[in-house]
Amino acid sequence: MKKIPVIVILLTLVCSTAVAQELIGLPEKHVMEIMSADKPGLEIDNMFKNNTFRYLKYSSRDENETWVIFIDEKGKCKGVRITCDNSCYDRKVKELNDLYKTAETNRWSYRSGGDEITVSLNREAWFFTVTHERTNHKGKSGNDRAA
Questions:
Q1: Count of domains in the chain?
Q2: Are 41 and 14 in contact (CB under 8 A)?
C-alpha cells in the first residue's frame, strides 16, 4: 500500500510537458541546462547519433517517458516531441487544456515570443506523443517543422 503514493509522485514528476514551451528558440546549451534543472528524472541519451537531424534525447530510467528536442541549423530548439506511457494520458490532456488554447481535438496553440506554437497529441495503443512545434516562425512558412 505504501508503494501507491510513491508511484503517483513518480508519474507526476515524469509525465510533464510544461517545460517544453520554454525550450523553443533557445540555444542547445541553454536547453540542456533547463532540462538538467527542471527534469532531474530524465537522463540525456547519447547512445544514438543521427547525421541528418540534430536533436537531444532524454529518457526516464523506467523508459516510460522520452523527450526528443529538435535543434535547427543555428543550434536553437525548433521543437519538442515527448512520448509517454498511456498511464499519464488523462492528466496530460487536462494539463494541455489548462495551459493552451484548444485549436481542435488533440491540438492546441500558444504564442511564444514571435512564434506561434502548435501542440498536438497522438495516442497509440501503449503510449502517446505530445509534439510542440513552430507553426509560423517570423515570416517563414509552416515547413519549418520539428519532425
A1: 1
A2: yes
pLDDT in tens, 7-32: 434 444 445 555 676 799 999 999 99
For 38-61, the pLDDT digits (tens) are: 999 999 988 876 767 899 999 999
Tell me how crowded residue 12 is: count the other CB atoms within 10 A of its CB. 11
- Residue 71 has which C-alpha cell? 535543434
Domain limits for position 10: 3-137
Chain position carrying cell 500558444: 110
- Examine residue 55 and state whether it is found in any structural domain, yes or no: yes
Separation CA 66–CA 127 (nearest Å): 11
Strand residue runs (E) in the chain: 42-44, 54-60, 65-71, 77-85, 101-104, 107-112, 115-123, 127-137
What is the model's pLDDT at position 53? 81
3-class SS of residue 15: coil
Q: Which residue in 41, 37, 35 sits closest to 9, CA to CA?
A: 41
Is residue 77 included in any domain, yes or no?
yes
What share of the chain has pLDDT > 70, as a percent?
76
